Structures are given as structure tokens and as C-alpha cells.
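Researcher: I'd like a candidate sequence for this fold, 214 residues long. If you have to choose between options at a position, lean toward the conservative one.
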């Protein structure tokens, strides 16, 4: 999946990515979204050493796999699509000063019959750092106004005014280095495992595209 600095251009790629994942990858099973938040004090290490994302990706998959093994009481095989988003809540990064701690959220659950929700989730994990709907350029002052949907109690406002060069610096900081993968697939959703779906009848029955088992 490529990255476009222009939110509009990136949105086109995001829609195509969500469609491809929903139609070719996601099994017709319930899915759950896990969101891992890294403490702000550790984020500079990831900013300056992007290879750390590879190691933490495998760690997160192993944690989730072990969790489901423990819940099921036996060894099972799961599938995971993992996306690193260096921007997180971009609005929160602009309007917040408090140090955040490590947290995990898994409140989003998608039923096996909700294909549209699976596609929307795929689009969400591949979205651009900033939306065009939230920014406005004022050429007279040379400022970019970044609006947020929520009122910030500390700043007593729901927008932030930035110099153009400062805004560009904030956005470009999230462009991944060349050839670095920010979206990875593990378990049943890895390319190697998907190539063996045809060997398992129960997976073929759940495959989004029956051609995967032909």
C-alpha cells in the first residue's frame, strides 16, 4: 500500500485497499479491532528507527494469538491485518499536551455477515494522516487552520492555527521511508497461508471469493 501526501489522492487508494481486503482476504467470520497505543515517551524511538515496527508487529500478533488460545483452551489459528499509524488521532496530537500511557482497546466487534463493516475497517486502518474536511488555508495570513470535531477543554477551542511550513512538517513526518511496510498480514491472512486455503474445506466455505479455493 503506497502513501500519498495529498489526502484526496490517498483516499482513492484507501477505498481500493478496503475493497480488496473485504473481497479477497477477510473470511466471513466475526472480526474484532484491537488498538494498541504506545506511550508518547516511547514514540520518538519509533520515529527515528522505523525498523522497530517490524519487531512490535510480530509481538502484537503473538500476544493476540496467545490470548485467543487461552480463551479457547486449545491451539487455534487466527488471522490478523496489522497497521501502524504514526499519526494516531492527528487532532489530538495537535491540541493535546498531556503524556499518554500504554492502552489497549478492543471494543469494536464486527459480525460475520457485515461485509460493509469489514470494508470500512480496512479503509480506517489505511487512512491518510489528515482529512481535507478539517483543514483550511488562509493565504492572507499564511496560516493553516486545523479544525477538530471535539472541543478541547485545555485550549478552550476546537481548532489550531499553524504556520504553513509547520503544518507541512507535521504531515511529512508521517511519510514512511521507502520500502517500509506499515500494513502486515499474519496467520490465516498471510500470503503463504492464503495460498493453502484450498487444502482446508472449512476455510473454502468461509472464503470471501470462492476463486481462492478453485
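Model: Candidate sequence:
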Amino acid at each position: 500500500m503506497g502513501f500519498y501526501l495529498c489526502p484526496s489522492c490517498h483516499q482513492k487508494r484507501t477505498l481500493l485497499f478496503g475493497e480488496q481486503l473485504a473481497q479477497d482476504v477477510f473470511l466471513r467470520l466475526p472480526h474484532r479491532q484491537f488498538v494498541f497505543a504506545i506511550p508518547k515517551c516511547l514514540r520518538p524511538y519509533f520515529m527515528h528507527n522505523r525498523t522497530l515496527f517490524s519487531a512490535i508487529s510480530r509481538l502484537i500478533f503473538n500476544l493476540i494469538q496467545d490470548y485467543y488460545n487461552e480463551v479457547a483452551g486449545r491451539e487455534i489459528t487466527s488471522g490478523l491485518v496489522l497497521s501502524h499509524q504514526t499519526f494516531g488521532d492527528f487532532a489530538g496530537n495537535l491540541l493535546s499536551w498531556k503524556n499518554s500511557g500504554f492502552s489497549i482497546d478492543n471494543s469494536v466487534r464486527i459480525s460475520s455477515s457485515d461485509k460493509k463493516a469489514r470494508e470500512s475497517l480496512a479503509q480506517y486502518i489505511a487512512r491518510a494522516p489528515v482529512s481535507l474536511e478539517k483543514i483550511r488555508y488562509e493565504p492572507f495570513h499564511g496560516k493553516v487552520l486545523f479544525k477538530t470535531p471535539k472541543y478541547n477543554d485545555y485550549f478552550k477551542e476546537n481548532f489550531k492555527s499553524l504556520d504553513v511550513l509547520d503544518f507541512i512538517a507535521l504531515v511529512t513526518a508521517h511519510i514512511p521511508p521507502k520500502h517500509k511496510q506499515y500494513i502486515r498480514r499474519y496467520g490465516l491472512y498471510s500470503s503463504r497461508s492464503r495460498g493453502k486455503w484450498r487444502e482446508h474445506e472449512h476455510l473454502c466455505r468461509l472464503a470471501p471469493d470462492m476463486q481462492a479455493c478453485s
